[in-house]
Specification:
This protein has 224 residues and is an alpha+beta fold. It folds into 2 domains: 11-104, no CATH class; 122-222, Sandwich (Jelly Rolls). The protein has 2 helices and 9 strands; from the N terminus they run ααβββββββββ. It is flat.
Length: 224
């Protein structure tokens, strides 16, 4: 019996279709692509969550972090020429003073010893350390309810880090940002119920081991 997939010469028969079928297939592909764009790509790349489903899946926060890093890189690139120009001007002034025989001596700073009363010695509730390789980033959060306060400090232990202190949950907020900072300390007051904490990024050429200390009103410290 002749297979209906082949003609009398043994050639594969062509698939018949219609103009309406092609239009339906094209419209279906367009709708699917639009759904993927709206549900996944916009939240994950730009932090734009048109449906409200991106944040529960973690895609919106990913997009917001990406956009923050893109802005950080752009700011660093924009500030580099001005910084180099200032350094060149300072070097030129120093060279002129040296040529004139002027000795440049920094002013002496008087060191005043500070005694810390025993009552001010802090006892931290949680302490966490982590080593970031060059270019890597990591996040730690405190689970808090609105109005709770947590006292914190973190140090890059002799190096520097970029950071973004922010919160997510019943809302989204950025409390403070910094680039090339050796440390940070203060009080974090939760603006709403959710998780509040830090994102660190190592922009140096060497591994950086940082240490976070926290105490005060919060449910728990969340770390990777």
């Amino acid at each position: 019996m002749q297979n209906n997939q082949y003609d009398q010469h043994g050639h594969v028969r062509g698939v018949k279709t219609s103009g309406a079928g092609l239009i339906r297939a094209t419209l279906g592909s367009t709708v699917a692509a639009g759904a993927i764009l709206t549900l996944f790509w916009l939240p994950a790349e730009y932090g734009i969550d048109l449906t409200g489903l991106g944040r529960p899946m973690g895609l919106t926060e990913m997009g917001e972090i990406k956009q923050g890093l893109y802005a950080e890189v752009a700011a660093e690139a924009a500030s580099a020429p001005q910084l180099l120009a200032r350094l060149d001007a300072i070097e030129a002034q120093l060279a002129m003073l040296v040529a004139k025989g002027v000795t440049v001596t920094p002013p002496a700073v008087e060191e005043i010893p500070v005694e810390v009363p025993q009552a001010e010695v802090t006892t931290w509730r949680d302490t966490w350390s982590f080593t970031l390789q060059p270019g890597d980033g990591i996040e730690a959060k405190l689970r808090m309810t609105k109005g709770q306060e947590a006292i914190f400090e973190w140090t890059a232990n002799g190096s520097v880090l970029n950071y973004d202190m922010h919160g997510d949950g019943d809302g989204s907020i950025s409390y403070e940002q910094g680039r090339g900072e050796p440390s940070q300390e203060g009080t974090l007051t939760a603006a709403f119920d959710g998780t509040h904490g830090w994102y660190w990024r190592n922009r140096t050429d060497n591994p950086v081991t940082f240490t976070l200390n926290v105490r005060g009103d919060y449910d728990r410290l969340l770390t990777p």
